[in-house]
Design a protein that fits this description.
The protein has four helices and no strands. The protein is an all-alpha fold. Helix 3 packs across helix 4.
């Protein structure tokens, strides 16, 4: 059987599930969350040149949070675009 390597965040979620730290939500709450996730769907490609030092810092910060650096950068851009 092939083993799947989990990110730090995925490991935290798995542990929380094992401890029953999550609660069921109503269908309307679930739909609201699903709609919010769907609205954040990434449907455009951006090629960008940045300073290598800045990229290294972004990668380091993303690693501390347990997320991929491209996801981290996308979230930063999203927050700035909607502030």
């Amino acid at each position: 059987m092939k083993r799947v390597k989990l990110t730090n965040r995925e490991k935290q979620v798995e542990e929380a599930l094992a401890k029953d730290e999550y609660a069921d939500v109503s269908k309307s709450e679930f739909r609201e969350l699903a709609d919010a996730i769907g609205a954040r769907k990434k449907d455009a490609v951006l090629n960008l040149r940045i300073n290598s030092g800045d990229l290294a810092n972004l990668k380091r910060r993303a690693a501390k949070l347990g997320v991929k650096y491209q996801t981290f950068i996308s979230e930063i851009l999203h927050r700035i675009a909607h502030s």
